[in-house]
Specification:
Blueprint (H helix, E strand, L loop, with lengths): L12 E11 L3 H11 L3 E2 L7 H25 L6 E3 L7 H49 L10 E2 L4 E8 L3 H5 L4 E8 L2 E8 L1 H10 L5 E3 L9 H31 L2 H22 L7 E9 H11 L5 E5 L6 E2 L10 H7 L10 H15 L3 H14 L10 H23 L6 H4 L14 H30 L2 H24 L9 H26 L3 H17 L2 H29 L3 H23 L1 H19 L16 E3 L1
Antiparallel strand pairs: 1-9, 1-10, 1-11, 2-9, 3-12, 4-5, 5-7, 5-8, 6-7
Helix pairs in contact: 2-3, 2-7, 3-6, 3-7, 9-20, 10-12, 10-18, 10-20, 11-12, 14-15, 14-17, 14-18, 14-20, 15-16, 16-17, 18-19, 18-20
């Protein structure tokens, strides 16, 4: 697609299926070339050749490494960013060395976790026994352990931990309930039973029930038993903390080995997918996978110096990659939140870029706040992420930079610089956009909403025509026809003065509206049957709802401006109060107050424009024509850079 064709909507770069047949003795060299260039996503083909058996052992080694890494990573208490400077040339030897070292770490961490689990279970039981014992002691001063656990000829006392649903059943079988305590979603019961009823009660309990064993003589006094439990609880808590500390120290001492293992596993495992997917005769190997059309020529050129045989073919459901102009690249992040374009549909990234920036800047229409967003994005936001150099975060920063700059531009047109505090000095006689006028903001929001809703359905109409979806095309044409005539009919019928409607225009609009409604109804009946005969009402009402959804722009813009003026009144009050004492003091304190209150307002107001701009882009624009059911190409390549573990 030409650069001009990518200004509003773009087409994704579609992959083609590639089969490369190469001499067996060159397979590793060519595979490494493909991995180095990062252009091929492998496809696994059925194969049974000697190479597969040779690879299986290496793959098993990598799978063990992956299992060990994932287990150890799950036990890390905090993430760390480790820069991998060099991937060693002898990857397999390095992998075997790392596995030898980390197997011991894996076994020790696993042993620690088993001990922690055992101690935690013992700790919970001790805490429950202590709580029950204290409760019984208050009820029966001077009592002994036999009051919580006793076995006699005619009476048996047991302390049970049961679900709430089993409490009534247990109570119905008891002679007496000595204690009843609630613990989370379970109940601790100390009850006296006859031996027969105890057996019946235990057999009726679910598997997650528990009988608490005190582990002390029935003649032991409860006071002495509670003291022993307190010592036991302290000892268990200390042991658990020591074990966790040992686990933490052990893992942190091996953090670089973990990072290197992760980098090797991810790059080498993917490389072997290419070889495992190869089919060949005794002397040849076949490598199968996906290559983007835009890079196919480069791949063919790179392989031209080798004796290869290459076959390409189209597929009914190929993976894709974004293909946008450079200014729109960061905004692919927004599109990804909804989905990846399929090979037959447009990529809405350019349209979403315009939309997001327009919505965001209208909601945050202030020069000072726009500058504040840029500064916060540059200096503050990186403090809240693990890896500020990650591609995703860099794209987010670029989006916010653009949003902040455009907010400042709209703020200039609105004569808003920290509200009217500095905005009054902007040399514009009258604001082009008056953020203090709610009615005007609502009008702008509705106009923007109508325009984008109409545009979204227009794109959907063209798409359905292009794909031969006739019924869907009729529906979209009906929606557009209703939108073309509906506003004039509503204005004339309800005597709303926002549009001047002549009689001839009204008759034409009425005809368009009726025709559009008929198209919507018929298309719904065709696709849904009889139920479509009344569901079309929701479609028509939905159009109005879609347009009115954009009123959030006015609400957030007005709210931000109103808060700015409210805080400005505080600043003016501070200046007036102190200015009479000393103008210098008034100016200094007023400036400090200005920075403080407007930073506070920016913190309050910064999130809503971002969230609601995203919502409008994803649910009011993309949802009308964008399916987002595609799959992004995932070529194998060696990753050199920072690894987060």
């Amino acid at each position: 697609m030409s650069s001009l064709g990518k200004v509003l909507l773009s087409k994704p770069d579609v992959a083609v299926s590639v089969l490369i047949v190469i001499p067996k003795d060159l397979s590793e060299e060519i595979t490494e070339l493909l991995v180095k260039e990062g252009v091929l996503e492998p496809r696994v083909l059925e194969a049974s050749n000697p190479l597969v058996r040779e690879l299986e052992n290496y793959v098993a080694l990598l799978e063990e490494a992956k299992r060990i890494y994932e287990y150890l990573e799950s036990n890390l208490e905090r993430r760390a960013v480790v820069k991998v400077e060099v991937i060693p040339e002898s990857i397999r030897k390095t992998l075997e060395y790392l596995l030898t070292e980390l197997r011991r770490v894996y076994e020790e961490v696993s042993s620690i976790n088993n001990l922690v689990t055992s101690y935690e279970k013992d700790l919970i039981n001790s805490l429950l026994l202590k709580e029950v014992s204290e409760h019984v002691l208050r009820k029966y001063p001077g009592g002994t352990v036999s009051l919580i656990h006793y076995t006699g000829r005619h009476i048996v006392i047991r302390t049970l931990v049961v679900p709430e649903s089993s409490v009534d059943r247990v109570k119905s079988l008891t002679l007496e309930v000595l204690a009843e305590l609630r613990h989370d979603k379970k109940v601790v019961l100390t009850c006296a039973f006859s031996p027969e009823k105890l057996s019946e009660a235990l057999s009726s309990l679910p598997e997650n029930s528990l009988v608490l064993e005190p582990g002390a003589s029935p003649e032991t006094s409860l006071e002495s038993y509670i003291r022993s439990l307190e010592s036991r609880i302290t000892e268990l808590s200390r042991s658990i903390e020591n074990l966790r500390s040992r686990r933490r120290e052990l893992l942190e001492s091996r953090i670089r080995d973990l990072a290197l293992l992760k980098a090797i596993v991810e790059s080498e495992y993917e490389r072997l997918k290419v070889l495992r997917g190869a089919l060949g005769s005794k002397y040849t190997v076949a490598i199968s996978g996906w290559v983007l059309k835009s890079k196919l020529k480069h791949v063919l050129s790179s392989l031209s110096r080798y004796p290869t045989y290459i076959v390409t073919s189209e597929d009914s459901n190929p993976p894709v990659e974004f293909d946008n102009l450079r200014p729109f690249k960061p905004f692919e992040l927004i599109t990804e939140l909804y989905g990846i374009p399929t090979h037959y549909e447009w990529d809405p990234t350019p349209l979403l870029a315009y939309s997001f920036l327009l919505f965001y800047s209208l909601m945050m229409a202030d020069i000072g706040y726009g500058i504040g967003i840029v500064l916060a994005t540059r200096y503050l936001l990186p403090k809240f992420v693990n890896d500020p150099d990650s591609p995703g975060f860099r794209r987010l920063q670029k989006i916010l930079y653009a949003g902040g700059v455009l907010s400042a531009v709209i703020g200039l047109l609105a004569k808003s610089f920290l509200g009217s505090l500095l905005g009054r000095y902007i040399p514009i006689e009258k604001p082009i956009i008056n953020v203090g006028n709610i009615a005007e903001l609502v009008g702008i929001s509705l106009a923007v909403g109508y325009a984008f809703t109409f545009l979204s359905h227009s794109i959907a109409l063209v798409k359905n025509i292009k794909l031969g979806r006739k019924i869907d095309a009729v529906f979209e044409a009906g929606v557009l026809t209703v939108m073309a005539g509906g506003p004039f009919v509503i204005s004339k019928t309800f005597n709303i003065a926002f549009i001047s409607v002549a009689d001839s225009t009204y008759r034409l609009a009425q005809t368009l509206t009726l025709v559009g409604l008929a198209m919507v109804v018929l298309s719904r009946i065709k696709t849904m049957g009889g139920v479509g005969g009344f569901l079309w009402l929701f479609d028509v009402v939905g159009i109005v709802g879609d347009v009115f959804s954009y009123i959030r722009i006015a609400g957030i813009a007005a709210g931000t401006a109103l808060l700015a003026e409210l805080f400005n009144s505080i600043v003016v009050g501070v200046y007036d109060s102190l200015g009479g004492i000393s103008p210098v003091v008034g100016v200094v304190v007023g400036a400090i107050a200005t920075v403080f209150v407007h930073t506070f307002n920016l913190a309050l107001s910064a999130v809503s424009p971002f969230i609601h701009s995203l919502r409008l882009c994803l649910f009011e624009i993309s949802s009308k024509f964008f399916e987002g059911q595609g799959r992004r190409l995932n070529p194998v390549k060696v990753y050199l850079g920072k690894v987060v573990v």
